[in-house]
Amino acid sequence: MSRINSGEPVILTGNSHKELAEKVATRLGLKLGAASVYHKTNRETMVDIADSVRGKDVYIIQTGTKDVNNNIMELLIMAYACKTSSARSIVGVIPYLPYSKMRKRGCIVSKLVAKMMCRSGLTHVITMDLHQKEIQGFFDCPVDNLRASPFLLQYIQENIPNFKSAVIVAKDPASAKKATSYAERLRLGIAVIHGEQKDSESDLVDGRNSPPPGNSRQRITEVGVGMPPLTAKEKPPINVVGDVAGRIAIMVDDMVDDVNSFVAAAEALKERGAYRIYVLACHGLLSLDAPRLIEESCIDEVVVTNTVPHDMQKLQCHKIKTVDIAPLIAEAIRRIHNNESMSYLFANVTLED
Ligand SMILES: O=P(O)(O)OC[C@H]1O[C@H](OP(=O)(O)OP(=O)(O)O)[C@H](O)[C@@H]1O
């Protein structure tokens, strides 16, 4: 990779993923800028940037982790500190953009997050595999939504023996387009799973202010709007459309969170004769009990990139593998900094990725 050539940028990072930030800086032939980001005893976030950023192009590498609210505050305060110290441009490098999964009912938090980031001083955002591409429209600055698919496709070709006898699986109809786009590039067939795999409220971990019990359809009917209630027993059964018998099944998605939906899908695939089951996704959030669930499941491997740190989860589960996307992020920074076209980075991706 050629070097940065138009005035050295400053690469800063908060506490979300130092390892990734260091890898990116090293690839660019730079050192991380001296900044300390810490929390006072009252939990307020403090930022000290040691060197002057006046007139500089600053890149702040900060991803979303399980410490998500601190991740966001650190980024906002760092960006604001750079803005008020007269940085020329401030690029937020946010590999996993938090709050991008929209909850059914409730406000669109990603719009609020985008507005706060722009107000704090970000002049450009680099992110990866947005859960909804439309989120880019919430930002009042340019957004480059990089894709992990070329890296994941390469992993399949190099690390899954007999991948030519595999079928790419969409674990729900919503991910069918993504599965098709992977399948076409690998010249494989697809299968689509239909049916309820997890409760829509399964990501609630804190009981305070949680919605009243009962499923959402029931509540809608109680106030006299909408269709008759569907009870848990009446949920559509899991159905696999496509032939997976005697094949390797590879599920592709944007993120693996608490993993429940993938485990349920894997069981359906196993029942129908798939003999090896892989899950590939960009973001390995691997929340809650995910490592144990994967370990005990019929999934053979979960392959994610290092947009989100997951070393602890790997200690608990030997089936989790990591693909390094630091080279992609470094190349995006280099191109933006040198005012070069980004199209090269999108050469082998499709709109559906
Ligand atoms: O918690 P896990 O079981 O690991 O699930 C992760 C899934 O959640 C997200 O989709 P979501 O269910 O939010 O559906 P959506 O596409 O309707 O937003 C994401 O795209 C994965 O498919």
TrEMBL record:
Domain annotation Ribose-phosphate pyrophosphokinase N-terminal: ranges: 10-121
Gene3D superfamilies reported in the protein's UniProt record: 3.40.50.2020
One Pfam family this sequence matches: Pribosyl_synth
UniProt region (Disordered), positions on chain: 199-221
InterPro entries on file: Pribosyltran_N (IPR029099), PRTase-like (IPR029057), PRTase_dom (IPR000836), Rib-P_diPkinase (IPR005946)
Keyword line: Nucleotide biosynthesis
Example of a GO cellular component annotation carried by this entry: ribose phosphate diphosphokinase complex
Coiled coil: none
Molecular function GO terms recorded: ATP binding; magnesium ion binding; ribose phosphate diphosphokinase activity
Biological process, per Gene Ontology: 5-phosphoribose 1-diphosphate biosynthetic process; purine nucleotide biosynthetic process
Family: Belongs to the ribose-phosphate pyrophosphokinase family.
NCBIfam families referenced in this protein's UniProt entry, alphabetically: ribP_PPkin
PANTHER family attached to this UniProt entry: GH23275P, RIBOSE-PHOSPHATE DIPHOSPHOKINASE FAMILY MEMBER
Protein name, per record: Ribose-phosphate pyrophosphokinase N-terminal domain-containing protein
